[in-house]
Design a protein that fits this description.
The chain is 78% helix and 0% strand. By secondary structure, the protein is mostly helical. The longest helix has 30 residues.
Length: 108
């Protein structure tokens, strides 16, 4: 019984970053057009934190594909925010997000 409980907890913990990534992707899709510089900074840092959490777990190929799709969606919205000048009001924020994207190996 205890082994089953531990397995269920580890699966729930393992899926938490995927659920966070899904929520971030949905938020970016719905609200990115209304983000102010602080919202962009928060989204970029959350994306970075989620990616770090994902590295802690072993995922199946299907889970990795799902993660990749969600990461791609999030990165797309962040890159669009940088390219569209949404962050030009405060260049420090735009440069910070560019740095985060560069650090993650995401080209824009």
């Amino acid at each position: 019984m205890m082994v089953c409980f531990a397995f269920l907890c580890s699966c729930a913990t393992k899926m938490h970053p995927i659920h966070q990534l899904q929520a971030l992707s949905e938020d970016l899709q719905k609200n990115a057009a209304y983000y102010d510089p602080q919202d962009w900074r928060d989204a970029a840092l959350k994306f970075k934190d989620i990616r770090q959490d994902i590295q802690k777990y072993r995922y199946t190929p299907d889970e990795r594909r799902q993660i990749g799709e969600l990461e791609g969606q999030c990165a797309k919205y962040m890159v669009e925010g940088v390219k569209n000048g949404a962050l030009n009001t405060v260049m420090g924020v735009a440069n910070e997000i560019r740095g985060i994207l560069d650090g993650l190996g995401i080209r824009y």
